[in-house]
Design a protein that fits this description.
Order of helices and strands: HHEEEHHEHEEEHHHEHEHHEHEE
Number of domains: 2
Helix content: 25-40%
Number of helices: 12
CATH class of the largest domain: Alpha Beta
CATH architecture of the largest domain: Alpha-Beta Complex
Strand content: 15-25%
Structural class: alpha+beta
Oligomer: single chain
CATH superfamily of the largest domain: PurM-like C-terminal domain
Number of strands: 12
CATH topology of the largest domain: Phosphoribosyl-aminoimidazole Synthetase, Chain A, domain 2
Length: 366
Amino acid sequence: MPATAKSKTASKAMTYAQSGVDIDAGDRLVELIKPSVRRTHGQRVMGQHGAFAGMFRLDFNEKIFQRNYEDPVLVACTDGVGTKVKLAADLGILDTVGIDCVAMNVNDLIVQGAEPLFFLDYLGLHRQDPESTAKIVEGVARGCEIAGCALIGGECAEMPDIYTEGDFDIAGFAVGVVELHRAIDPVRACAGDILIGLASSGVHSNGYSLVRRIIDTHSLRLNRAYAPLGEQLLGDVLLEPTRIYAQSIVKLLRRYKVKKVVSAMAHITGGGLAGNLPRVLPTTLDAVVDTTAWEIPPIFTFLQNHGDVETDEMYRVFNMGIGYVLAVRPTFAESVLKQLQKSGESARIIGSLKKGSGQVHMEGIS
């Protein structure tokens, strides 16, 4: 073949990198995140880092870890972080949304009484920048450490035709286990049960479409500190990671191996207290919530005032300061409250259950 023909052919050669996918960058990421991922692994994790799938032993028979299940039930869920990732991308703060992703999943998982076992994450990216992506995955690993579960796999997908420059999305998948006779069952709830609320760490990961609309409409600056929020920048307040309740709840449930003192639990996500409590209660009971039992975090009042949002709408969209709720037997309420507080939770009695038709009564809202 003449030299001119050969050079013309070579100039037409195309590569995967030219289409927007950098395999070498993906390989570099795998090495960057290895230490963070390994920190979440315990005795039950098997297989090599970077394998096609993660392996996890449900039972571990050596004396160092004697724990077998009589009638185990696997519990699984999946969730993402929503448009909170847009704020993270805009601010270039990438090490917190990974914690959010773990929290949104394991907080759902423990509602069934399950102990989180392992976690997988999925990242959709415009372009693979190993150092930036590693920050996101390090956040996921940190969340797994807080939750007490192993990060055993994940996927980072470059899709420049789907995501614009700088944009990304994250989702997670959690698996846990609970003994069948210990699984939380809504029929266990009774009239008179006491509702204990655990404080949220802020907005958590729901309602950010409204948050961003308020910011855009009123030209609020994410890099500014507003007086009602103290010395923190608005962006830092809004990116505060979702609180992970897993260790506190698992520890609490382990204390009651015979008595079933916790009758129901709810993770307060989109829909607020009124939208999430009915999901875990029988249709013969109502929940009565005293909204004066806790102090509303300043960020919610700040958003409401700037967005001119009705109070009912605020409680319908946001957690308003309560991120998790337990219904417990009246005679054990004080004991459970103290145990949760000892575990580091800001816990308080916020109401009770009564006979009804599956409704939630929000008392004290003006």
